[in-house]
TrEMBL record:
Heme b binds at residue 198. It comes from Hordeum vulgare subsp. vulgare. Substrate binds at residue 168. Binds 2 calcium ions per subunit. Belongs to the peroxidase family. Classical plant (class III) peroxidase subfamily. Belongs to the peroxidase family. Ascorbate peroxidase subfamily. Residues 30-333 form the Plant heme peroxidase family profile domain. The gene is LOC123409238. Its EC number is 1.11.1.7. Its cofactor is Ca(2+); heme b. It is an enzyme of class 1 (oxidoreductase). Removal of H(2)O(2), oxidation of toxic reductants, biosynthesis and degradation of lignin, suberization, auxin catabolism, response to environmental stresses such as wounding, pathogen attack and oxidative stress. The keyword Magnesium does not apply. The active site is at 71 (proton acceptor). It comes from the Eukaryota. This is Peroxidase.
Length: 356
């Protein structure tokens, strides 16, 4: 036996000893900036290119991708489960009422995944692609960027019920919203900060007509919404029209609808908030203090926003050998049933531990 192979054997047994001391999942636990720098150095660029191309065609994809990441993270953690298509036997998250038909941007993730698979097969998770895409969307719409810790693995389970049970409703009160975010280990301040994402994007009528018609069982308009704004919204969304025109949308921040800035908060204090849940930020003095802070300093909101996005991106992530690296973001890998989770490399197609 050559001394080289001897050294190799000593080395591998040392590695085995270390691995025995620290189970692989624990070694891999925790996300890391630059996770793909060795295994797929072009990954983040390829995502950025896909997002930039889509944004050039339709700036609305930025809002769509940021919300997709939020809806991924709040339902079974940031595991790409929101991207999975329904099958004959399973109605997926994306087809639950809070998501359908409003979620958008799936084709951008598909394009990024396709480009990445061509360069580095079976290496980059859909959950990470989505986290990168949300960051790139924020950069394009808001001229602010941040580093995204990565190393998420993809989940194999996606159900309409978990989407319904975990996504906050636009009819929520302040204490409900705080409670919903606390369940995800996010603070009341994170909730106010992240709600600022409503500075871009659109909404369907059904998410806010509660404030326009039959408010509190009267025929009145919610008194906290500007009457001029309510008049405009009623013209866009006539009474009982949601069911006939379910795809009619309106901008959520009427001051600067496509720019990621602090005008969402400015709108709130001018009675231009759209949802009951937006208006709710003014009903509690602690939350309102944050709103006022962000009106005073857009810079402060942006720096806090990107930090809260990173925090949100860390919710219940799968790492190490948990889950899998999905080959198509819409379909769990062959050989995995979708009924198990966190059960190691044997049921996934990808067993290599990526650079950590
Ligand atoms: C605080 C609780 C929240 C509630 C109740 C809520 C609710 C909603 C609703 C109802 C819509 C419109 C859907 C439709 O009818 O078309 C929407 C859109 C949107 N939400 Fe939220 N949201 C919340 C928090 C967040 C967070 C944390 C983010 C991201 C960080 C976010 C980002 C967005 C974006 C970007 C849109 C526009 C999507 C598009 O134009 O495609 N929201 N949200
Ligand atoms: C461009 O955006 C429109 C919607 O605004 C969409 O229907 C179309 O598919 C997009 N085209 C490309 C190439 O992404
Ligand atoms: C759906 O379930 C049936 C019965 O359990 C099974 O035979 C079939 O293969 C399943 N189809 C899919 C697409 O998983
Ligand atoms: C983008 O931000 C940079 C620095 O944060 C600033 O110098 C630049 O003027 C901004 N660009 C626009 C278009 O706002
Ligand atoms: C989920 O989808 C199933 C059909 O697969 C349906 O029967 C059920 O009502 C849906 N549940 C929710 C909460 O949307
Ligand atoms: C949000 O909080 C309210 C009040 O605690 C609760 O009834 C509701 O089920 C929660 N929703 C979610 C999605 O966590
Ligand atoms: C919240 O934090 C606790 C304690 O660290 C952890 O056990 C729990 O899994 C976390 N929950 C979420 C949704 O991240
Ligand atoms: C509206 O009326 C229903 C049924 O009478 C009641 O359950 C509900 O609490 C009322 N809502 C408000 C806001 O008063
Ligand atoms: C909307 O429909 C409800 C019952 O579905 C009805 O009571 C109400 O009068 C309708 N509102 C208008 C403005 O037509
Ligand atoms: C406002 O919200 C904060 C944060 O959730 C909470 O601690 C406080 O009790 C609330 N204040 C009131 C008056 O409801």
């Amino acid at each position: 036996m050559s001394s080289l192979s001897m050294k190799f054997m000593l080395f591998t047994s040392a590695v085995a000893a270390v691995l025995a001391l620290f189970p692989i999942a624990a070694v891999g636990a925790g996300l890391k900036v630059g996770f793909y720098s060795k295994s797929c150095p072009s990954a983040e660029n390829l995502v950025q290119q896909a997002v930039a191309a889509a944004f050039k065609n339709n700036t609305g994809v930025a809002a769509g991708l940021i919300r997709l990441h939020f809806h991924d993270c709040f339902v079974k953690g940031c595991d790409g489960s929101v991207l999975i298509d329904s099958t004959a036997n399973n109605t997926a998250e994306k087809d639950a009422p809070p998501n359908k038909p409003s979620l958008r941007g799936f084709e951008v993730i598909d394009a990024a995944k396709k480009a990445i698979e061509a360069k580095c097969p079976k290496t980059v998770s859909c959950a990470d692609i989505l986290a990168f895409a949300a960051r790139d969307s924020i950069a394009l719409a808001g001229n602010v960027t941040y580093k995204v810790p990565a190393g998420r693995r993809d989940g194999r389970i996606s159900t309409n019920t978990s989407a319904l049970n975990n996504l906050p409703s636009p009819l929520s009160t302040a204490s409900e919203l705080v409670g919903n975010f606390t369940l995800k280990n996010l603070t009341a301040e994170d909730m106010v900060i992240l709600s600022g994402a409503h500075t871009i994007g659109v909404s369907r009528c059904s998410s806010f007509t509660n404030r326009l018609y039959g408010f509190s069982n009267t025929s009145q308009v919610d008194p906290t919404i500007s009457s001029a704004y309510a008049f405009l919204l009623k013209s866009i969304c006539p009474a009982n029209s949601s069911q006939f025109f379910p795809t009619t949308t309106t901008d959520m921040d009427i001051i600067t609808p496509t720019v990621l800035d602090n005008k969402y908060y400015v709108g709130l204090t001018n009675n231009l908030g759209l949802f009951t849940s937006d208006q709710a930020l003014l009903t509690n003095s602690t939350l309102k203090a944050s709103v006022d802070e962000f009106i005073k300093s857009e810079k402060r909101w942006k720096s806090k926003f990107v930090k809260s996005m990173v925090k949100m991106g860390d919710i219940e992530v799968l790492t190490g050998t948990q889950g899998e690296i999905r080959l198509s973001c819409r379909v769990i890998n062959k050989g995995s049933t979708g009924l198990e989770i966190n059960n190691g490399p044997d049921s996934g197609e990808f067993t290599e531990i990526a650079t950590t």
